[in-house]
Amino acid sequence: MPQLTPATGASSRDSSPWRLVLQVSGQGHATLGVELADQVVLGRAFEAEAPGQVVELAPHGAEICGVSRRHARIHQEGEALYVTDLKSTNGTRLNGYRLEPGHGYCLRDGDEVELGKLRIIVRFVRSPRLGRPGADASQTVSPSPDNAVS
């Protein structure tokens, strides 16, 4: 069972955070647990370089795979989670679709996020709304320009 990393700053929207498992395929495979109250940055920056919650991907081959220091973020909006490319050098893909930087795209349980060439499967362990895995998956759609949010 992966260890969960607590988020900094509790969200006023919900009393309990999202719980995610990130299955990383870079140099080898790793499973990372994350508690997400509001947002988390994915990249190879150290906590001191990027305030707030950071998932440090450097130990998993991030630099070789072209991951930027602050590559993308996963954030909560309403009762759903979104992924946003943070103007990374090598781009972000969601299920093979290249994301436009600065726009959020809805995440579903089991989606594949690629940061450069680093692949991450996002698993919902718990959502605050219903408290069960993939609780919001039926309300989300595959990425397209039509489901992006600014």
Task: Summarize this structure briefly.
This protein has strands spanning 4-5, 18-26, 28-36, 39-43, 54-56, 72-77, 80-85, 92-94, 97-98, 104-106, 112-115, 118-126, 148-149. The protein is mainly β and 150 residues long.
What does this protein structure show overall?
This protein is mainly beta. It has a single domain (4-132), classed as Sandwich (Tumour Suppressor Smad4), CATH 2.60.200.20. It has strands spanning 4-5, 18-26, 28-36, 39-43, 54-56, 72-77, 80-85, 92-94, 97-98, 104-106, 112-115, 118-126, 148-149. The strands form 2 sheets. A 7-stranded mixed beta sheet has the order 1-3-2-12-11-8-9, with no helix packed on it. Strands 5-4-6-7-10-13 form a 6-stranded mixed beta sheet, with no helix packed on it. Mean pLDDT is 79; it is low at 1-14 and 132-146.
In CATH, the topology is named Tumour Suppressor Smad4
Number of domains: 1
User: What is the class in the CATH system?
Assistant: Mainly Beta
Portion in strands: 35-45%
Average of pLDDT: 79
Poorly predicted segments: 1-14, 132-146
The helix content, as a percent range, equals: under 10%
What's the total number of strands? 13
Order of helices and strands: EEEEEEEEEEEEE
Global morphology: globular
In DSSP terms (H or I, runs of 4 or more residues), the helix count works out at 0
CATH architecture: Sandwich
Going across the biggest sheet, name each strand in turn: 1-3-2-12-11-8-9
Largest sheet: 7 strands, mixed
Structural class: mainly beta
